């Protein structure tokens, strides 16, 4: 039996994960902005489910909730940093508030959650963190620049701290789902006021495809969540868990293109080094 701490459990991957873990007999500390949304599960699994209200942009409350979870439950084996959403629109269409809220939620919220749990995981001799990134943490599409900024950002943060925390028995996996029909592309998405000048551009065309239902995700959210749960049994922890064939194809193509582009400018990269014979100071 494991104990899990999960953010953003009102819908989508978070809610499915809570249901699956409770069914299998694990203990779950579920956090969400509207705790009443888990009332049905609380009735059914009173002894296994611990619930607290948490908006991950509230760093002070986040630390209090993490402190309370470890105090009440003693040990937490797996922390799932799941809360997040996408803001949609060309960069100049977005409002300052939309930009700030997206970064506060997806990037700073995830960083601060990690910083809050690290002392406890270290003290208990280890633990696992699953960070919801996205295939959009390795590729990018027009009209999602701020979402990508947060997901590429969180990938950079974890790429660095994986090595910092490994000596303490803490293992981390970046989960990278492809598009999935959760509340993500629907109610959760924050859409910018459109500017007509973008209508015939890539950003505008993606907007039209979205509103026409032109994009059909193929990732099954329940299978994706099962893969996330199963990944905790893998040792060593996979650094990345890419989920969905659409994501695999897009990331594969993007990585190949990046490597080809890197190789093409190899001579320029090396030519910028000091000449070893006449090393100049700068
Ligand atoms: N579905 C996809 O296509 C997809 C693909 C790749 C990655 N992801 C990632 O997967 C994660 C979960 O998304 P999902 O697909 O399950 O979408 P979802 O159904 O919209 O769930 C998102 C969850 O995050 C919560 N949330 C948003 N802002 C929050 C905040 N400030 N504080 C606390 N909770 C907050 C939402 O709570 P409220 O009900 O209170 O809004 C909801 O519980 C996200 O990090 C997302 O970026 C999703």
UniProtKB/TrEMBL annotation:
Molecular-function annotations in GO: oxidoreductase activity
Lineage top rank: taxon: Bacteria
Family matches, as InterPro entries: NAD(P)-bd_dom_sf, SDR_fam, SDR_oxidoreductase
Pfam family, one: adh_short
Annotated keywords: Oxidoreductase
Family of this protein: Belongs to the short-chain dehydrogenases/reductases (SDR) family.
PANTHER family on file: SHORT CHAIN DEHYDROGENASE, SHORT-CHAIN DEHYDROGENASE_REDUCTASE FAMILY PROTEIN
Protein name per Swiss-Prot or TrEMBL: Short chain dehydrogenase
């Amino acid at each position: 039996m494991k104990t899990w701490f999960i953010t953003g459990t009102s819908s989508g991957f978070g809610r499915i994960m809570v249901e699956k873990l409770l069914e299998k007999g694990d203990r779950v500390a579920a956090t969400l902005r509207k705790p009443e949304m888990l009332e049905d599960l609380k009735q059914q699994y009173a002894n296994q489910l611990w619930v607290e209200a948490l908006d991950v942009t509230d760093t002070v409350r986040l630390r209090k909730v993490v402190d309370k979870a470890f105090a009440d439950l003693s040990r937490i084996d797996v922390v799932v940093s799941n809360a997040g959403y996408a803001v949609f629109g060309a960069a100049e269409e977005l409002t300052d508030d939309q930009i700030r809220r997206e970064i506060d939620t997806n990037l700073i919220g995830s960083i601060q959650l990690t910083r809050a749990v690290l002392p406890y995981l270290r003290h208990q001799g280890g633990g696992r963190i699953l960070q919801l990134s996205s295939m959009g943490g390795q590729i990018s599409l027009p009209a999602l620049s701020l979402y990508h900024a947060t997901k590429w950002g969180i990938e950079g943060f974890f790429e660095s701290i994986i090595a910092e925390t490994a000596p303490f028995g803490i293992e981390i996996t970046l989960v990278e789902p492809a598009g999935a029909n959760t509340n993500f592309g629907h109610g959760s998405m924050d859409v910018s006021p459109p500017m007509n000048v973008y209508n015939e551009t890539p950003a505008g065309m993606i907007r039209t495809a979205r509103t026409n239902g032109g994009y059909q995700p193929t990732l099954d959210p329940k299978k994706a969540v099962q893969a996330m749960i199963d990944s905790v049994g893998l040792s060593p922890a996979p650094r990345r868990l890419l989920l969905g064939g659409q994501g695999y194809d897009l990331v594969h193509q993007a990585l190949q293109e990046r490597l080809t582009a890197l190789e093409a400018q190899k001579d320029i990269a090396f030519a910028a080094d000091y000449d070893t014979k006449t090393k100049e100071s700068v």
